[in-house]
Amino acid sequence: MTTPTSPTASRWERLRDSYLLYSFKRDLIAQASLLVFIVLVAGAVLAPWLAPMNPYDLAQIDILASELPPFWVDGSDPAYVMGTDAQGRDLLSTILYGARVSLIIGFGAVALQAALGVCFGLLAGYLGGRVDAFLMRLADIQLSFSTLMVAIVVGALFKAIFGGATFSAYAVPLLVLIIGLAEWPQYARTVRASVLAEKGKEYVDAARVMGLSSRRIMFRHILPNTLSPIFVISTVQVANAIISEAALSFLGLGMPETQPSLGSLIKSGFDYIQSGSWWITLIPGLVLVVLVLVINLLGDWLRDVLNPRLYKG
Amino acid sequence: MSSTATSPAPEQAQPLLSLRGLEKRFSLSGDFLEQLKFKGGKLVREQEHVHAINGVDLDIQRGEALCVVGESGCGKSTVARTVMGLITPTAGEIRYDGERIDDRTTKELLPYRRRMQMIFQNPYASLNPRMTIQQTLEEPIRLHHPDWSPQRVKDQVAEVMTSVGIAPDWGARYGHEFSGGQRQRIAIARALAVDPEFIVADEPISALDVSIQAQVLNLLMEAQQQRNLTYLFITHDLAVVEHFGTRVAVMYLGRVCEVAPTATLFATPRHPYTQALMSAIPRLEDDRPQHIRLQGEVPTPVNLPSGCVFHGRCPHANERCRVEVPTLIATDEGGQVACHGVEEGRI
């Protein structure tokens, strides 16, 4: 998914950036979304330096300080701005670390989906015929199972076969793998459709007449012309992957509570919501909603900007 | 493989490119399941084809510009694309410099790609929008001369750009920054970049303004003189043919009906279809013979007529024309014509 950047290409890239910038400057929602997204991502990336404590370090956790409310509620401890969860972990730190896990899984899963989907989509669209029929039927089969169902079955099997400890150790790569494998048809179908449109254009014929290999034509000539829709789906898919991960964690098949993601934080707090400790669920829930919302808003904006009917490079 | 690419110089008579019995059918029936149909209580497999070209024989001599003319849908472009290997022929053979090339893989064709190139109809679609002109022109050179130094590749690009009248320092620009005529010049430069000897041009000027058409046509003729090129030139513009072509092949419904030197064909067309075609050229003179009006429509290429493909509209058709497919026979004027009437001396 990297665009070739040679010295000569950068000039045009700047031109394109300037159009992106132009429409960005006129769109308040996009600006606000990007700001919130950057703050959340920065918080997540810089968690080890920003967070008041390390929620993974058992030595720092004080069980006596459990279920403390956030600062604006009576009975709060100024050391814990957002309060603490049932194990006495500082909620702010846990959310920062949790957002980090959620984002890693979200982006990792999307990278895997994109890699698989783009390759399959290019092959199906460019080669056509039986390869196309086979890959697209495979995509149909994959799409007929919902992501969550596949994830639940695979996750449960893995947990049953290798035990909870192994599952916890490999939870992040496993979730990336499950969510990534379950959603590749989204990319494959979109890329295939774009490839079919591009394949009929004469520059592809010119490349074939030149004698270029199919691989080079697919990746150097066709793929750069199908990048716009890929970018747009990617934003939506990152949000989807984060939601899927949260849902799995909420069902107990995602991140373990010792290294919680936003989803498993919501789950762990859910047990205490009846006893009045609403903040353990509500605050990470809000963060999750805001994160997914801004990614979707950015995706909507990007889709409008890159819409080939409005703007075609 | 390399020995075939650099085969010894052929005898004088050997054509550079020869097509024998070339056929191409395109299926209209979709995949296997869509072809199954119930007919009278029986499950039968039905296939329908468009016969784009059926049985084309053509020879192209070194150094000539062979123009292929015909109305829309007669298979001109299919011939061009089949010659370039963009389409695999259903039957028949293509020989380039005596070597058969239609059954080769992409890799085996590579040495021929350097010798034969193609110019496309639509200059707005034939340049990759995400590549600069420099990248577009360097790509074929790098592919065919992997041993060349970057400087030599750059020099070659500059040379072809200058020769088509595009300043070499415009290389950093993208295709969409140029006008249609300039783009077509760049497309010509791309074809010339690997120093080919044979160029297939598929209606290279029909998408351009009339004022630009002459410039591009002259450019192609200059390139022919300077680089000793051979052209297969697809067009439907008879004025261009008269100006450009050494010989002309007239196609009708996927078959060649007449091949002749340009002057001969324009002066004494032999095939009834060619005669009708020539009489349709608007001219200033008043004393020319009456415009020949053909009756009926071009038959569909899905269900080809039996015998001569032109018999349904030919004023001279007889029983033999309805049954027997005519083959190309040599005429006294030095051309070839596929017509029973001419063979029998009726026309």
From TrEMBL, chain A:
Membrane topology summary: Multi-pass membrane protein
Superkingdom of this protein's organism: Bacteria
GO CC entries: plasma membrane
Subcellular location: Cell membrane
Regions that span the bilayer: 28-51, 101-129, 141-161, 167-184, 222-243, 278-299
PROSITE patterns, A to Z: ABC_TM1
Keywords assigned by UniProt, alphabetized: Cell membrane, Membrane, Transmembrane, Transmembrane helix, Transport
Matches recorded under CDD domains: TM_PBP2
InterPro entries named among the record's database cross-references: BP-dependent_transpt_permease, MetI-like, MetI-like_sf, OppC_N
Pfam families membership: BPD_transp_1, OppC_N
Residue ranges constituting the ABC transmembrane type-1 domain according to the UniProt record: 99-299
SUPFAM superfamilies: MetI-like
GO biological process, one term: transmembrane transport
Similarity annotation: Belongs to the binding-protein-dependent transport system permease family.
UniProt name for this protein: Dipeptide transport system permease protein DppC
Source species of the chain: Halomonas beimenensis
Lineage start: Bacteria, Pseudomonadati, Pseudomonadota, Gammaproteobacteria, Oceanospirillales
UniProtKB/TrEMBL annotation, chain B:
BP-aspect Gene Ontology terms: peptide transport; transmembrane transport
Domain ABC transporter: 38-278
Alphabetized NCBIfam families for the sequence: oligo_HPY
InterPro entries reported in the protein's UniProt record: AAA+_ATPase, ABC_transp_ATP-bind, ABC_transporter-like_ATP-bd, ABC_transporter-like_CS, Oligopep_ABC_C, P-loop_NTPase
One protein family per Pfam: ABC_tran
CDD domains for this protein: ABC_NikE_OppD_transporters
GO molecular function annotations of the record: ATP binding; ATP hydrolysis activity
Record's protein name: Dipeptide transport ATP-binding protein DppF
Similarity-based family: Belongs to the ABC transporter superfamily.
Keywords for this protein: ATP-binding, Nucleotide-binding, Transport
The UniProt record lists the keyword Calcium: no
